[in-house]
Specification:
This protein is α+β, with helices and mostly antiparallel strands. Helix content is about 40%, strand content about 10%. It folds into three domains: about 35 residues; about 35 residues, no CATH class; about 50 residues, no CATH class. The radius of gyration is 26 Å and the shape is elongated.
Length: about 120
């Protein structure tokens, strides 16, 4: 047995290392799966909106919480449209808009609004 270990110690060490890495990954995966975190809601105060030049009056009354923070309203129409999975915005008649699934539409009223949210102009 000792002679076998001496001859094959590299192979055995490699197998041992792979098994340990797999067990460490599995332990981390199960730990992460067991931790249920609540969803995140992003909101900002009216002072921040004023700094960004987004008028508070343009948001619906339902978007303002009891604490006074403002949550972004999700419009259903606008002058520009993008995909919630993409980074480009288009005019509604553009061919790029036809490739977006209607349930993934993100509407913008101005170019500045789209750019503030990280979108860039798409080619038509």
């Amino acid at each position: 047995m000792g002679n076998f270990l001496i001859r094959h110690y590299r192979s055995l060490f490699t197998i041992f290392l792979v098994v340990m890495l797999f067990l460490a990954f599995l332990l981390g995966f199960l730990t992460g799966k067991s931790r249920q975190t609540p969803s995140v809601v992003l909101s900002c105060s009216p002072d921040v909106l004023q700094t960004l030049a987004i008028p508070v009056a343009s948001l619906s009354h339902n978007a303002i919480t009891k604490e006074g923070s403002v949550m972004a309203k999700k419009p259903s129409t606008g002058k520009f449209v993008g995909s919630k999975n993409g980074t480009k915005y288009y005019t509604p008649g553009c061919s790029g808009t036809k490739r977006i699934n209607p349930e993934n539409y993100v509407w913008f009223s101005t170019v500045e609004d789209a750019q503030l949210q990280g979108y860039t102009k798409g080619s038509c």
